Structure formats: structure tokens, C-alpha cells
């Protein structure tokens, strides 16, 4: 290791083990060593970013063997960064799905803004603690400001608040625990939650993790546009009341994962009011489309929700690891979470201060605010709005193009629903085939599309049918890749037996 002045031995005679006189400082990087380490990392990261469009969308060969090569005993002695990072980038990053690339059109993409990764680097190195305001007042305020921006975007009142989570699943869990606490207190076993048959599976899991028997969640049927049927929901609530259940909460969708469907939020808010229920909106996928005029029209009434889940790592293009829970009344969050141990007595606050440890389940946690704040501060909201509008337009475009595809033997494409956000869900139709045969054929089609490795699409089940989804939400996906996507679908259709 390099020679450092602060490691020099003092002249004073100190008794004790030599390690006290010559402490190991090898873990403490100097500024210069940090730069060297970052140079090594950047020598991989810069070409990685620049070559993203050329990477295959998927790399599924030899996955198990490559993954097995990671299994090594904990080394007692270290290796140079050059060696370790070369192995990481050359062998272990490539296998699987290229979630950062423009061909990633499966599940719900985002792409990953590199600015947020730089913010994470800064957060990690300054390592300030933002769980209590007084430990890093301006940085805690920075994170609170990000939450305030989100509240304003939704149209929430001044007393609203919330916190950043690791993702939408944990935001959903917090929302359901909050609803349980506010509406029913400790006696909640007869409480019932209502959502649609299109809800993300994390909603049912959140209810179970919040202590509800699974049977207390009603998954109400949706209509032909995959929005919850309001009359069905009301009938179910009435029936549960008659049977002695206590309707507790409605979990509405603002962008389902399957098709991007948005429930009638105003009607659901009316119903929640009528039955004295909590309204939670799962806007993990759809939420940031509020930056666009089309999104605002589709999500009318969203500000009436008691709580709301957002996923900046989807429609705000952040790298994985940031969700958000908002509550219309932040006092509810306080009443649920505020408790402290003797080792963390009351800490000084300021007029606008927020102690995140008093309104959220975590105590020590990463400084998530900076990874949201930095890209928004550097670019402003306008490019985000333009990107989201572009994704909406690309989805309309690809839907129209899909409807025009056909083959010589008469195969054609059925689009399952008019896209509301950025999912096009479709299946191949062939005359005289049963639904079971069509399921097999579409599975085959999906495999052939993905085998080209320019795009990666995923599937779901709608009305019992196997359906292929295109989800256009990566910041790096533009018209050129969507044209390629269509060409790949046409190729795969032509190849089908
Ligand atoms: C992705 C998603 C979730 C889950 O969020 P994670 O960030 O993956 O935990 C919940 N609801 C919807 C609608 C989603 O698209």
C-alpha cells in the first residue's frame, strides 16, 4: 500500500501490540485511490453505456454454468480491482436480460438514468444519516422536497407526505398497514380489501404480510378494458356487509402491469367515501404519466386517494431500487410509526423538518432522495414529460402496426385492449384453431421473437388466454427499436410451422 503521512509512527512510546502503533489502513481509500478505483470502474462503464444498443436483448445460453462460476469461497487476501471488475463485466454482467438496453420491452422497464447511479456514489461516500432531520438537516430536507414534488404532481394537499421505499411492493405493504391502522386499529381480522382481478400480485401479498388472511382480499372482475367493474364491486361490498365483514379498503389500479389499464378513480373514490373505506391507488407503473396531459386525463380523481404507491424506477426511468408511498394526511403515517428507543430520544427539529424514522418503517437506510433529485434538478421535469409522451405515442403506433401484420396462410394479430398507457397486449390468431392450440402457438411465437435477441417481450394471461406484451417504457427505446420489434414479430410469424 502507498505510504501515507497519517500512518506515520508517533515518537511517543506506547505500550501494547504493534498493530496499535502501525494500524492497518488498507480499507481507507485516499482521494487519489478512490479516483484510481473509479477510473477502473469507468473503463468498463463508459463503453458499456455507449454500446448498449448493440448488446443482445437477452443472453440465456449457459446461464447456470456462468452463475455457478460465481460461487467461490470468501478470499482471505484481496485481488486488484482490474482483475475483479474485468471478471464482473466480461463474465457475469452479460447473462440474462439486458434491462438497461432499448430492446427490453418486457415486464415494466425503466432503463436506468446514470445520473441516479452517480448520486448513489455520492450518497455512499458522504454516508450521511438522513433518518433524523438533525443528523443531516439539508439532506433530509432534500429528500422531503422530492416527496413534496411527488405530492404536488398528484395534487395532494399541504398536510400530505410520504417516504421513498425500495420499490412498489414495499410501498403497497406500507399502504395496507396504514389503512388497517387508521380504519380499524388493532382489531382488523374482519376487515376486507377490494381490488380487481388485474391487480399486481404484490397487493395480495401486502395484505397477507399486513396480517390479513388471504381470503379477506376480494379480486373483483374487470371489464373488457380491464378496469374494475364498479357495479360488481359495490355488490360485493354490500354482500360482505350483510355477512358481517367490515369493508376496509379499495386498492385501485392506475396502470395495471398486464395492460396498463386505469380504473375509474373518481367512481372508486365516491364508493370509498360512501362506505367509509380507505382508497389506495397502485400507481407504481402509471403514476409519473401525471407529467403528461394524457396521463392527467386518464387518472382524474387520483388526488382523492388516501394513499398512493409510485415507482420512480419505472416511469421516472431510475435504476432499480426506488419506490414511494404517499399519504394524503401525513399525521396518519406519524401515528402508525412514531416510536423511539432510549438510544434515540427526541432529536432537535426545525419548522419544516421531518424525521423519516417517525413516519416510515425503516430506521437506517440509504439516502434515496439524491438519486431522484439529481436527475430532476439537472434536467428539470420537461424532458421527462417529453419522454413519457414519446412512449405513449410509440405504443399507439406499434398497436396500429400490429393490427396490420399478417402472413400468407392467414395468421393475423388480435390486440387485446386499446392501450391506455404503454402496454400493447396481443396474440396471434389462426383460423380454425382452438384456444388451447392458440396458446401453444403464441408461446412458440414469443420464443421465436425473443430468439432474435433484438428485443425481449414477456407474456401474461388475459381472460384465460396466453397473451404477449410489449411494454414501451425504457428511456432508451425509440422508434428505431420499435420498428425492429415489429420486423422481428413479422419474421417470427413467418417462421411459425
Ligand atoms: C411493478 C409494479 C408493482 C411492484 O413494484 P416493485 O417496484 O416491482 O416492487 C406494483 N404494482 C404495479 C402496477 C407494478 O407495475
Please describe the topology of this protein.
Elements: H1 18-21, H2 31-50, E1 58-59, H3 63-68, H4 81-92, E2 96-97, H5 114-126, H6 137-154, E3 161-165, H7 168-184, E4 191-196, H8 201-209, E5 217-220, H9 230-242, E6 246-253, H10 265-274, E7 278-283, H11 293-298, E8 307-310, H12 312-315, E9 323-327, H13 330-337, H14 369-379, H15 382-404, E10 412-415, E11 423-429, H16 435-451, E12 458-462, E13 465-471, H17 479-495
Parallel strand pairs: 4-5, 4-6, 6-7, 7-8
Antiparallel strand pairs: 1-2, 3-9, 8-9, 10-11, 11-13, 12-13
Bound molecules: pyridoxal-5'-phosphate.
Pyridoxal-5'-phosphate (PLP) binds at residues 108, 167-169, 200, 202, 255-257, 282, 284-285, 311, 323.
Report on this model:
It is built from 17 helices and 13 strands. It is α/β, with parallel strands linked by helices and 497 residues long. It folds into three domains: 68 residues; 261 residues, Aspartate Aminotransferase, domain 2; 112 residues, Aspartate Aminotransferase, domain 1. The chain is globular, with a radius of gyration of 26 Å. The N terminus is likely disordered. Pyridoxal-5'-phosphate binds next to helix 7. The site of pyridoxal-5'-phosphate has 14 residues, from helix 7.
Amino acid at each position: 500500500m502507498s505510504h501515507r503521512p497519517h500512518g506515520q509512527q508517533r515518537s511517543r512510546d506506547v505500550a501494547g501490540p504493534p498493530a496499535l502503533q502501525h494500524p492497518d489502513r488498507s480499507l481507507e481509500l485516499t482521494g487519489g485511490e478512490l479516483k484510481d478505483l473509479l477510473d477502473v470502474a469507468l473503463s468498463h462503464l463508459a463503453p458499456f453505456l455507449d454500446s448498449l444498443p448493440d448488446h443482445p436483448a437477452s443472453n440465456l445460453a449457459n446461464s447456470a454454468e456462468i452463475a455457478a462460476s460465481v460461487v467461490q469461497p470468501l478470499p482471505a487476501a484481496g485481488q486488484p480491482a482490474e482483475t475483479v471488475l474485468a471478471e464482473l463485466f466480461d463474465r457475469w454482467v452479460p447473462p440474462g436480460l439486458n434491462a438497461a438496453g432499448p430492446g427490453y420491452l418486457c415486464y415494466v422497464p425503466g432503463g436506468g438514468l446514470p445520473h441516479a447511479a452517480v448520486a448513489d456514489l455520492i450518497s455512499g461516500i458522504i454516508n450521511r444519516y438522513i433518518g433524523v432531520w438533525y443528523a443531516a438537516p439539508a439532506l433530509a430536507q432534500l429528500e422531503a422536497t422530492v416527496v413534496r414534488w411527488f405530492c404536488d404532481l398528484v395534487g395532494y394537499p399541504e398536510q400530505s407526505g410520504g417516504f421513498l421505499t425500495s420499490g412498489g411492493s414495499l410501498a403497497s405493504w406500507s399502504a395496507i398497514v396504514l389503512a388497517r391502522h387508521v380504519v380499524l386499529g388493532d382489531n382488523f381480522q374482519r376487515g376486507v380489501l377490494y381490488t380487481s382481478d388485474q391487480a399486481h400480485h404484490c397487493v395480495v401479498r401486502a395484505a397477507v404480510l399486513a396480517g390479513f388472511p388471504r381470503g379477506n382480499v376480494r379480486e373483483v372482475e374487470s371489464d373488457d378494458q380491464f378496469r374494475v367493474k364498479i357495479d360488481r364491486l359495490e355488490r360485493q361490498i354490500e354482500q360482505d356487509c350483510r355477512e358481517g365483514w367490515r369493508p376496509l379498503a379499495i386498492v385501485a389500479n392506475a396502470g395495471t402491469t398486464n395492460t396498463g389499464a386505469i380504473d375509474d378513480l373518481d367512481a372508486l373514490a365516491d364508493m370509498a367515501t360512501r362506505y367509509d373505506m380507505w382508497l389506495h391507488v397502485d400507481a407504481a407503473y402509471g403514476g409519473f404519466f401525471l407529467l403528461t396531459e394524457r396521463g392527467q386525463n386518464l387518472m382524474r380523481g387520483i388526488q382523492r386517494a388516501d394513499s398512493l404507491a409510485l415507482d420512480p424506477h419505472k416511469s421516472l426511468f431510475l435504476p432499480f431500487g426506488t419506490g414511494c408511498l404517499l399519504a394524503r394526511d401525513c399525521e396518519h403515517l406519524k401515528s402508525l410509526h412514531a416510536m423511539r428507543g432510549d438510544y434515540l430520544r427526541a432529536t432537535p427539529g426545525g419548522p419544516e423538518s421531518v424525521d423519516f424514522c417517525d413516519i416510515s418503517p425503516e430506521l437506517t437506510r440509504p439516502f434515496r432522495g439524491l438519486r431522484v433529485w439529481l436527475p430532476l434538478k439537472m434536467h428539470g421535469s420537461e424532458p421527462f414529460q417529453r419522454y413519457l409522451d414519446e412512449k405513449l405515442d410509440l405504443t399507439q403506433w406499434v398497436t396500429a402496426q400490429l393490427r396490420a401484420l399478417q402472413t400468407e396462410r392467414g395468421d393475423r394479430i388480435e390486440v387485446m385492449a386499446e392501450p391506455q398507457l404503454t402496454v400493447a397486449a396481443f396474440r396471434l390468431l389462426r383460423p380454425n384453431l382452438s384456444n388451447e392450440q392458440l396458446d401453444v402457438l403464441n408461446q412458440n411465437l414469443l420464443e421465436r421473437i425473443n430468439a432474435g435477441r433484438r428485443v425481449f417481450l414477456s407474456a401474461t394471461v388475459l381472460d384465460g388466454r396466453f397473451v404477449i406484451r410489449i411494454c414501451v417504457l425504457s428511456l432508451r427505446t425509440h422508434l428505431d427499436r420499435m420498428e425492429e420489434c415489429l420486423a422481428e414479430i413479422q419474421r417470427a410469424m413467418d417462421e411459425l410451422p
